[in-house]
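Quick start: read one record
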Amino acid sequence: FLIGLPFGRDLSWGSQQRDAHQLSWRAAAAPFWPGTLFGAALLAALAFGAPAAVPYALPFVAGLVLAVPFAKFTADPDVGASMVRAGLCATPEEVAQTLAPPAERSLNPATPAAASD
């Protein structure tokens, strides 16, 4: 990043997508495939070489192996709305909006709590 600047490398800083959107499997796999591949290889090596060690390694290896499906699942807008309704991973504003009286909830139609009324 910084080393390329003196050599004429162009810098572009893209903005984050903050709106709810569906994540494709390709987009989910792009940043996580090396770790997933390493985790799967490690799990396969353990299963072949020391099968008794697999249950002990699962808490460490499962995060690597499940990174791509976890990214795909948690990026789903429907899953996010369900989690907000359940009070999981909600921001303080979303919690306050859920606890607000119905008349006040209608003032902010962008929240999932207002959409469910």
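The chain has two domains: 27-75, 76-117.
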